[in-house]
Amino acid sequence: MIVYPDFTNSILNVTSTILKHYKAPTIYPSIPELEKELKKNFKHVVLILLDGMGMNIIDRHLNYKDFLSAHVVKTITSIFPPTTVAATNTVLSGLPPFSSGYLGWVQYFKKENTNLTVFTNQDFYDHKRIFDEVLRDKYLKYPLIYDQIKAFNPRTKTYELFPNFRPNGFASFKEQTEKVLEIIEQKSKTFTYVYWAQPDMVQHDYGIDSLETKNILRKLNEEAEELANKINDQTLLIFIADHGLVDVKAFDLTDNKPLIRLLKRNPSIESRATNFFVKPFKKKKFKSVFEDNYGAFFKLYTKNEIIKSGLLGYGKKHPMLDSFLGDFVAVATDEYMLEFLKGSSFKAHHAGLTRGEMEVPLIIYHTTIDT
């Protein structure tokens, strides 16, 4: 089943609802259910993003009485592409990819002539090519949600809790929840953003139906419930995910020499939302070859079509969006992904338009909430 991003009912709108609560400007609609809870004026608001926790694995691995499942207020969508680089930056900026410029794991930066792995600041196809200047800071910087909140609520303290791939990060989700409990003991108002990289990583390695995925999700559920049992009545917990995942099979693009010969540079963005820059006068040929090989599993958009479709959102267009996008973007509508590099493998992946990738939970909890 294909599901498109709903920019009235998405992770973008979670952020816009929070910004509206703190009187920060946003052009994007609020989610009524979250707005209603925020109007109760909790002293402490905690937004927790569990990477890859789509509704599909909640439904598979938790029963309706388990904490996370029991407090799903509604199903919302991710953005497009539903992938960590694009989606987490949407949450942190309050902007869709159309405006933030964050599209996926690999983006082509014209001035540096590199297919950059955005989060690692190195060339995706040549790992030895690492840039001294952080290119995402140079070209994709935006006011963070914390900055926007502080601008209109200078007395509200803001915090971000990340895993230990960042300086001063945390080794476990349990450690993050313990820090949250410290933060909410303050007398001042606080807003805290928590990001944890599971259950995304375990699904990539083992698949969505695996025992490993079930065990990780159930542990996260237990630790989330333990946090909920310890918060005070001045705290609102909001849990979301950036995207879901689906089990995948791979087509190795490097084996398709007739198609590769039509490209003027290597593919980019994501394996299930794949960006192609085509040689001059070869677009018609490329479309024919692609459709013959992959048309049953991918929807092929031209650059103009994907921008006009609204898949990337709306608002002020990022000045580099046109240079990031190639002549075509192939979007997965089935179980297949397109491998850029030979030998890369995932049991499950994301960035396509299937229900499992697009549908994520909005979970809300406070001590007086009706259950």
TrEMBL record:
Xref: InterPro entries: Alkaline_phosphatase_core_sf, Phosphodiest/P_Trfase
Segments forming a coiled coil: 210-237
GO function terms (MF aspect): hydrolase activity
Top-rank taxon: Bacteria
Keywords per UniProt: Coiled coil
Statement: the UniProt record of this protein carries the keyword DNA repair: no
Protein known as: Alkaline phosphatase family protein
Protein source organism: Peloplasma aerotolerans
